[in-house]
Design a protein that fits this description.
The chain is of the alpha/beta class. It is built from nine helices and eleven strands. It is globular, with a radius of gyration of 20 Å. 31% of the residues are buried.
């Protein structure tokens, strides 16, 4: 089997593991154990965000592992994200410091602008604040100004690298052209992604799923198998925020594409490929 690197090299020279533990919507009381289990199975990349409201649990788990001598801080790659209400330059360090305090860390390895949507924090909600049932949009925020705040965070040693999340190509181009520090560049489906050099963040709090999600480096997909998966492309976004509450997402498919038919295509393909490699039943 050909050797395949398990990381990508960022523009600051840091190595970012290709597979990380996703922590979005992890259930209260399960996350500390999930993080420790993930580290035990070999994960060295933890993905979180201010908006996930779980950084204290992650910080507790990391502290226990590091204090026990099982891991050094420099051995783990931690990603966090700036909330939508922190898009003014003078707010970036404020929210990053909150994340660092909760994570019990002096720096994160990568800090991302979570979304290009800018809001005015209301009643402590800096993610999707609402007033009279409507989202409180911040029309004065400028994402170029936000990025300058991100650069301030690098200068302050609070993060090693900075990047963007959920931005479209035009938004990325505008940031890139105005940046002093440039933005950082199912088992079968996970393997398909990492063979294309795409970092993946599978979320799970179940030890067996955490273990299975990491066992994707002992096989390769053939060119024919990769082409079969590529052929499923529908150029769609499967999940879209519904604008009501942060935990509600709705399936978003173009007219004429049925969710069941798309799911069946993926199911049938994994069944075809199952004879030549491991296939994992995806779950929580």
């Amino acid at each position: 089997m050909a050797s395949f690197p398990h990381y990508v090299k960022l523009n600051n020279g840091a190595h970012m593991p290709l597979i990380g533990l996703g922590t979005f919507q992890a259930k209260a009381g399960e996350l500390e154990a999930a993080v420790k289990t993930a580290i035990e199975y070999g994960y060295r990349h933890i993905d979180t965000a201010w908006a996930y409201m779980n950084e204290k649990d992650i910080g507790n788990a990391l502290k226990m592992v590091i204090d026990a001598g099982k891991l050094r801080r420099e051995d783990i790659f931690v990603v966090s994200k700036l909330p939508n209400g922190g898009h003014h330059r003078d707010k970036v360090l404020h929210y990053l410091q909150q994340s660092l305090d909760d994570l019990q860390l002096s720096y994160v390895d990568l800090y991302l602008v979570h979304s290009p949507l800018s809001v005015v924090p209301t009643d402590g909600d800096a993610v999707f604040p609402r007033k009279d049932g409507k989202l409180v949009i911040d029309y004065e925020a400028d994402l170029v100004d936000t990025w300058k705040g991100m650069e301030d965070a690098v200068d302050a040693g609070m993060t090693k690298a900075i990047g963007l999340s959920n931005f479209n190509s035009e938004q990325i181009k505008r940031i890139y052209e105005n940046a002093r520090i440039k933005p950082a560049n199912l088992q079968i489906l996970l393997r398909w992604l990492i063979q294309r050099g795409i970092i993946v963040i599978p979320k799970s709090s179940k030890p067996i799923r955490i273990k299975e999600n990491f066992e994707i480096f002992d096989f390769n997909l053939s060119e024919e198998e990769v082409n079969q998966i590529n052929a499923l492309d529908k150029n769609i976004r499967l999940f879209k925020y519904d604008g009501k509450v942060t935990s509600n997402y709705v399936l978003s498919l173009p007219r004429g594409i049925e969710p069941l038919s798309l799911a069946l295509q993926i199911h049938r393909l994994t069944a075809v490929l199952a004879g030549s490699m491991k296939v994992v039943n995806r779950g929580n």
